[in-house]
Amino acid sequence: MITNLVDVHAHTIPGVDDGSRNEQVSLEILKEEYSMGMRHQFCTPHMNDRSEMEAIPRMKQLLEHLKAACKADCPELNLYLGYELGPDFDILGAMKTEGEKLTMGDTDYILIGPLFSGQSNNMMDMFYDLQTAGYVPILAHPERMGYYQKDPSILQEYVEKGVLLQVNAPSLMGRYGDTTKHFCRELIDHNWVSFVASDNHRAHAESRMYKGYEYISRHWSSELADRLLIENGLKVINNLVIENEEPLGWHKTKKSFWQVLFKK
Ligand SMILES: [Fe+2]
């Protein structure tokens, strides 16, 4: 039994974004994940521009309410506030003017959600600015974006410059299709991934964190599963530096995985 899973990306603050629509749903998600070993979760509602920061006091209240509501069923669960920030958001400017942290809890880690509609032009500049100011950017679920699938060298540059990648457990299970699944596997094969998270928006009658842990253990190793679903998350919580294995360059030979798979 796994008992210390850390989810760094979930939409479980009720009624504030496209995630859980009420506290009942949030409790359902948390109980399911808790029963299968999750003990820490960063609740990371979407936030795309400064005007949305008005909702932060309400988010804090809702989180405190959620913590109290899940105490009986999930006594050892720890919830932290974070955000999934839009890539065109002037994060540093907003934090300075509003006097409000947009980090994962009280750490230096910042979660950025890429756009599905197309690549944002200034991602590398934004990462650079955040890093220069002492923050550590985490890019959420890049495996789901067609533009990264088509040109992994963009991600390679990010990773080589210290941006951490977080993939979604359901990507590994094929929930978003085979292309995403195989791309996700390749990102892990290349040592580009630092976290596997749930990105839970609603209840699924299964623990995405446990499924992800089990999948990584089976296809790679339990050591890697520990790193991607427990240890690196604990480092975020404790604001410690995450050191990954040397990222591998995107080898053409790796693409033969597809050829092997589809017998082409
Ligand atoms: Fe998300």
How would you portray this structure in words?
The protein has a 6-stranded parallel β-sheet with strand order 3-5-6-7-8-9. Strands 1-2-4 form a 3-stranded parallel β-sheet. The chain is α/β, with parallel strands linked by helices and 264 residues long. Helix 9 packs across helix 10. The longest helix is centred in the last third of the chain and has 16 residues, at 222-237. It contains 11 helices and 9 strands. The chain has a single domain, classed as TIM Barrel (Alpha-Beta Barrel), CATH 3.20.20.140. The termini are far apart. The protein has helices at 23-35, 56-70, 91-98, 123-132, 146-150, 152-160, 169-172, 178-189, 208-219, 222-237, 256-262, and strands at 5-10, 38-43, 46-47, 78-81, 84-85, 109-112, 136-140, 164-168, 193-197. Strand 6 (109-112), helix 4 (123-132) and strand 7 form a beta-alpha-beta unit. The structure holds fe (ii) ion. Fe (ii) ion (FE2) is lined by residues 9, 11, 84, 113, 140, 199. Residues 9, 11, 84, 113, 140, 199 line the site of fe (ii) ion (FE2).
CATH 2nd-level architecture: Alpha-Beta Barrel
Q: Which percent bin holds the helix content? A: 40-55%
Distance between the termini: 40 Å
Order of helices and strands: EHEEHEEHEHEHHEHHEHHH
Strand content: 5-15%
Our count of domains comes out at 1
For this structure, what is the CATH class?
Alpha Beta
Bound molecules: fe (ii) ion
Instruction: Supply the number of helical segments.
Output: 11
Identify low-pLDDT runs: none
CATH superfamily: Metal-dependent hydrolases
Rounded average pLDDT = 94
Strand order of the largest sheet: 3-5-6-7-8-9
Major pleated sheet: 6 strands, parallel
What's the number of extended β-strand segments?
A: 9
Class of secondary structure makeup: alpha/beta
Question: Which fold name is given in CATH as the topology?
Answer: TIM Barrel
Radius of gyration: 18 Å
